[in-house]
Every structure is written in structure tokens, then in C-alpha cells.
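Troubleshooting log. The previous structure file for this entry was overwritten by mistake, so regenerating from the original sequence record. Sequence copied from the archived sheet and checked twice against the printout by T.R.
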Amino acid sequence: MLKTNSDRLVQFALQGSIIPPVAFGWEVTRRGEGLMLPSVGGITYNVKIGDSVFGFEADHVEPGLSLIAGGYNDRRTANPNLGFNIYTCIGNVARVVSGPAKGKKGTVVGHHGGVEHVLADFPDDVLEKLTYDDKILIRGVGQGLKLVDYPDITITGLDPELLKKIPIKTKSKSISVPVVATVPAELMGSGLGHNDSFKGDYDIQTSDPSVLKKYRLEGLRFGDLVAIIDHESTFGWSYKKGAVSIAVVVHGNSFLAGHGPGVQTIFTSRDGLIQPIPDKKANIGNYLGIGRFKRKSK
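Regenerated output below.
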């Protein structure tokens, strides 16, 4: 059993607002084509954890709710939105605190860097009741989480209760983590060099279909766990031979140069102390019973 310092973690109340869909107008794809598609933000009714990241006519689409703290015109890289992003973690409980859906609960499923959104999954019946006037309160816990017996493996942005649900196997000096796929270093694009791996994402480039097929990435779903090979994310996303990072797929595919499905790092080891184990069921939705994996009530 993994020993952690979860009993020492601070728990914050973090309040966010639902961000309306953002329109960018015409954008130019990596092939020089003009496109205008649904993108980030919004109450998204039909895009959920477990869906294909390639399954929608969209660009960078986010599943479920897209949240920020403060108003739309506030500076998103400053407080209160900075604190809202840093202290929320994948797996945190989110609760509606206003409107007809007051009291209903959901789950944080990721962060989208650049636009600085926190993403949350809620059941269909809750989504139907929500409006852009409603507020969401998150019990933020997870930053500072450590594996006591593996000090050279860094955890970021992960709720300790979700950690318990991931079937991790331990060895004397390393851990084995289930993943749907492994991603070679050369495919990683937008986000490289940023030091906010604790709260944001970076993209798997999808400009070469033959490479996607080679590494079996065409089937990626929102919420999948993937291993990024030769990348370490302790103080930002960067190339390092032998390093391994484990990440969660948080947003959909993109047609823009250098972009693609976004992934948020949850584990990283610069010394390769994480062994990826292929597992088609490695999805946070499967572990938490949310999105397309939602358990039916008896």
C-alpha cells in the first residue's frame, strides 16, 4: 500500500463561476485551412469523460463544465483565478451552491492551461439545471501530496482519494502505473517550457496520422491516463532522456499547428522510476464512476 502525507494536506474552499463558450472566429489550421468550430468554455452537454477526443467537430473542446474564479474580464493568470487553478486537483469534489441544482455534486477532471479553466464533470440531470449565473464550490485538496517511500517521484494536481483508486503496483525503488498508451517525446507540443505543470496542460501533436496509428493514440478518450516518455514535469514540461511522466487527457483534439489533445501531468520521475503498464481501462472516469463510466443506481 502506498504511504502518503495526505493527513497533512490543507483543504480549501474554492469558488468558481461557469465560463460561457469562448468564440475565436476564423482560425488557420496547420494545413492553411480556415475553420470556425466550437472550442473552450461553456456548459457542454454531450462531451464527457470517456468520449473520444477525436469524436467531435470542435477544437480544444472541454468536457462538462468550464470554470474560473472571478469575472470573465478579470486577469486569469492573477488571483483569485490563480489560486483557484493551483489548489483544485483532479478528483476533487465540486458542489453546486446556487440555483435549481443547489447541493448537487460533481468532480474536477482537469485544468486547461492558457485559458486557465478548471474542468468538472456533473451528471446529465444536473447539467440541464445549471445556468451561467450559478456558482460551484470545490473542496480543494491534493497539492503537496507526496509518496513517502518514493521521494524522487513527484505528484501534482491529484486528489489523494483518487490516488487510492488507481491500481498502482509498487517495487522497492519504483512504481508501476496503468496507462492506455505511451506517447513519445517528439509528439509533445504546445505548453512545452511552461513551468505551470502543477495546474495546466500541454498538447499531444496530432499532425502526423501515421505516428498516431503507430502508437495507438487514435483511440484516446477524455480522462485516459497516458505515459509521456522522455519528459519530466517537476518544474515544467521539458525533454529529459529516461524520464517518465503520467498524465490525464483533459481536452479534445485541435487542428492548429503544434496542438492536439491536452494532457495534465499527475506523476513525474526524472530518473525513470515510473513504469507504464498497458491497461485499456486506465481512465479516471472508470476509477471514479463518472462521465460515460457513471454507475447506474440500483
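The longest helix spans residues 81-87. Archived copy saved in two places this time.
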